[in-house]
Write a structure and sequence with these properties.
This protein has helices spanning 17-26, 48-64, 75-89, 97-107, 120-125, 127-135, 149-155, 161-171, 193-200, 210-224, 243-254; strands at 7-11, 32-36, 69-72, 94-96, 113-118, 140-145, 181-185, 206-209, 235-239, 261-263. With 266 residues, it is an alpha/beta fold. It is built from eleven helices and ten strands. A six-stranded parallel β-sheet has the order 4-3-1-2-9-10, sandwiched between helices. Strands 6-5-7-8 form a four-stranded parallel β-sheet, sandwiched between helices. It is globular. Helices cover 45% and strands 17% of the residues. The chain starts with 6 loop residues before the first strand and ends with a strand. The chain folds into two domains: 7-96 and 212-263, Rossmann fold (3-Layer(aba) Sandwich), CATH 3.40.50.1860; 99-210, Rossmann fold (3-Layer(aba) Sandwich). It catalyses: L-glutamate = D-glutamate. InterPro entries: Asp/Glu/hydantoin_racemase (IPR015942), Asp/Glu_race (IPR001920), Glu_race (IPR004391). Substrate binds at residues 11-12, 43-44, 75-76, 187-188.
């Protein structure tokens, strides 16, 4: 496989760009292709069959672009279609945010009680619960759906009084739970990391960012396969609808300009 081949990253919309940001930080020489399925977002309200179909279409697109690795930056897809994507990808390694976040949480020396926050769909799927219990069936898990955080993130309201009040309200569920770590189970949530840290600062609770975790896993896997790119760093961005609005939000998420967002039909 070609070392200079790109890493393919995809999500149902814009949230996966927090994963892109961490991958670019951990692997600055890697070429990246990102696809956001903005025409069909959100995935969380759709059936697993439909989500799998969408995910396989995106996988096929990325494979046509000759990617050397695929990162599933969508919790809904990670929960419902990872095995099918891996089968379709063949020899191309596939990593997902749920596995990455779980592995990071379980690597922490103290992991008797893990908290998870996510969208209604992700929490309802209990995907993190299953992944954590594959490591250790005795771990206590407390989950909380935080649906308001996604629209706040897309409005850019991540560090104002409204955001702080809503984060406080959601995290109050963990006040007496004595959790050891808190998994941010949605790719929008790292945008609230500073606000969440301020809310939890009195307690020794580790925040697990699945974007950081999957970037670390990607670096380790590419190194193991001797596929690290010595010189690169390009970024291509594709969406299925509304590239102008996406570009505005994407630049907010990444903290940098994106020269061109291309629209394609799958």
């Amino acid at each position: 496989m070609n070392k200079e081949a790109p890493i393919g990253i995809f999500d149902s919309g814009i949230g996966g760009l927090t994963v892109v940001k961490e991958v670019r930080r951990a692997l600055p020489n890697e070429n990246i292709i990102y696809f956001g399925d903005t025409a069909r977002v959100p995935y969380g309200i759709k059936s697993e069959k439909v989500v799998r179909n969408y995910a396989l279409q995106i996988t096929n697109f990325l494979m046509q672009r000759n990617v050397k690795m695929i990162l599933i930056a969508c919790n809904t897809v990670s929960a419902s279609a990872r095995d099918e994507i891996q089968e379709a990808a063949g020899d191309i390694p596939v990593l997902d945010v749920i596995s990455a976040g779980t592995k990071a949480a379980m690597a922490w020396p103290e992991h008797d009680h893990i908290g998870v926050i996510g969208t209604l769909a992700t929490i309802g799927s209990e995907a993190y619960n299953r992944a954590i219990r594959e490591y250790n069936g005795g771990v206590k898990i407390t989950s909380k759906a935080c649906p308001m955080l996604v629209p706040l993130a897309e409005e850019g309201w991540t560090d104002n009084d409204i955001a702080r009040q809503i984060v406080h309200r959601y995290l109050a569920s963990f006040e007496d739970q004595n959790i050891d770590s808190l998994i941010l189970g949605c790719t929008h949530y790292p945008l609230f990391k500073e606000t969440i840290q301020q809310e939890l600062y009195r307690r020794k609770i580790r925040i697990v960012d699945s974007g950081e975790s999957i970037a670390k896993m990607a670096r380790e896997e590419l190194a193991r396969r001797q596929l690290l790119n010595p010189s690169g760093g390009t970024f291509e961005c594709y969406v299925s609808d509304r590239p102008q609005r996406f570009q505005e939000l994407a630049e907010r998420f990444l903290g940098t300009e994106i020269p061109n967002v291309q629209i394609i039909q799958l």
